[in-house]
Write a structure and sequence with these properties.
This protein has four helices and 26 strands. The protein has 318 residues and is mainly beta. It has a single domain, classed as 6 Propeller (Neuraminidase), CATH 2.120.10. The chain is globular. About 11% of the residues have low confidence.
C-alpha cells in the first residue's frame, strides 16, 4: 500500500484533522460595503449581486498572485473552503475537522449576517464539507450520522438534499456503493450532477466518479491515470461543463498539498499541470462566476486568486 488512510497521512500537513473537537471562533464582518440603492429601473444582475456579495467579504480583489481571503470575516480553523450559492446570497464553509460543523451566512440588504451553524435534520448532528450544484438545486455534505439499515457506523458518508420550492428536503444518503468507500473531504458536481469525490481504496487515496443517470447515482469508478497516481489525490472540483478538473495532489508525507488542473479531451484527461504560484492548496472552490478560486492556504486561512490560469495552462495554449 502506498499510503494509509488519508487522515493519518495528512497529520504532518493539516493538524486540524486531528485536533481536539473544539469549534472555531467565528466573528462577524468588521467592515462591510453597502449595496447601492436599487430602483425599479436598476435591478442588479446575478453577476452584479454576486460581485457585491463577495466584495462585502473582501474588497481587495486578487489578480494572478494569491492573497488571503476574508481575514476580517472568517476566523478559527477550517476544513473546507467557502461555497457560494449561485446567486451569491448564501455562503457555507466547513469548520475544523474536530468540530464536525458547517457554518453559513446570508447576504441581506447589502450586509452579511453573523455566521451561524447549520442543521438540516434532527437525525444528523455532524456536518462537514458542503457543496452546492451549479444550479442550486442539490446540496451535498459529509456526515458520520448513521445510515438507516447500514451496518457501517461512525464513518464519513455522503449525503444529498434537493430543493423543494424555497426549502430543502430531508437529507438522503447516497447509494451504498459510494458510501462503503472510505470517504473524506470536499466533493463536486457539474451541470449534469456527475459526482467527483476522493476516497481511500486498496491503500490508495484517489479521485472517483459516479455518473448521475436517470435520477440516480451509478457505482463509482476510480479515474484512470494521469489523474490518479501513486501519490495522494483529493478534493476535486469539476467545471460546470466538465471541461476541466481542479484537485489537490500531495507528493509525499512531507510535501505540501498543491493545486493541479487537468482538461477533458477526446481521449480522457490531459496530463495534470501544477499551478506553480499556489504553494499550498486544499479544497479549491471556484466562485459561481468562474472568476476566482478560493482554497485553504493553511488550516486556519483561506486564500484566493483569479482563474486566468485555467486558460493559460490549457494544452492548446502551452
Amino acid at each position: 500500500m502506498r499510503n494509509s488512510f488519508i487522515l493519518i497521512l495528512l497529520i504532518p500537513i493539516l493538524t486540524a484533522c486531528s485536533a481536539p473537537a473544539t469549534e472555531p471562533v467565528i466573528t462577524p464582518t468588521l467592515t462591510q460595503t453597502q449595496a447601492p440603492s436599487i430602483t425599479p429601473s436598476k435591478v442588479p444582475s446575478a453577476a452584479e449581486t454576486l460581485k457585491l456579495a463577495i466584495t462585502s467579504i473582501d474588497q481587495d480583489l486578487p489578480g494572478a498572485a494569491p492573497q488571503r481571503f476574508g481575514e476580517e470575516f472568517f476566523s478559527g480553523s477550517f476544513h473546507s473552503a467557502p461555497v457560494f450559492a449561485p446567486d451569491g446570497n448564501t455562503v457555507w464553509w466547513g469548520g475544523e475537522f474536530g468540530s464536525a460543523t458547517i457554518y453559513t451566512s446570508q447576504y441581506i440588504f447589502g450586509d452579511w449576517t453573523e455566521p451561524a451553524t447549520i442543521s438540516f435534520s434532527d437525525s444528523i448532528d455532524t456536518y462537514r464539507d458542503p457543496f452546492i450544484s451549479p444550479d442550486g438545486t442539490k446540496f451535498y455534505f459529509i456526515s458520520t450520522a448513521a445510515i438507516p439499515g447500514a451496518s457501517l457506523t461512525s464513518k464519513e458518508n455522503l449525503w444529498m438534499m434537493e430543493k423543494e420550492g424555497e426549502a430543502w428536503a430531508e437529507p438522503q444518503p447516497l447509494p451504498i456503493s459510494i458510501n462503503t468507500l472510505a470517504l473524506h473531504w470536499t466533493v463536486s458536481v457539474g451541470d449534469n450532477y456527475d459526482l467527483y469525490f476522493s476516497a481511500q481504496q486498496d491503500g490508495n487515496t484517489d479521485i472517483f466518479l459516479s455518473r448521475y443517470l436517470e435520477g440516480a447515482y451509478t457505482d463509482p469508478i476510480r479515474l484512470d491515470a494521469p489523474i490518479n497516481t501513486q501519490e495522494i489525490e483529493i478534493t476535486p472540483n469539476i467545471a460546470p461543463d466538465g471541461s476541466y478538473l481542479l484537485f489537490t495532489r500531495i507528493e509525499s508525507r512531507t510535501a505540501p498539498p498543491h493545486l493541479y488542473i487537468t482538461y477533458a479531451d477526446d481521449s480522457g484527461w490531459s496530463e495534470p499541470v501544477k499551478v506553480e504560484n499556489v504553494p499550498y492548496c486544499i479544497s479549491p472552490i471556484v466562485t459561481p462566476d468562474r472568476a476566482y478560486v478560493i482554497f485553504l492556504s493553511s488550516p486556519s486561512s483561506f486564500s484566493w486568486r483569479d482563474t486566468t490560469f485555467i486558460e493559460e495552462l490549457h494544452p492548446n495554449n502551452r
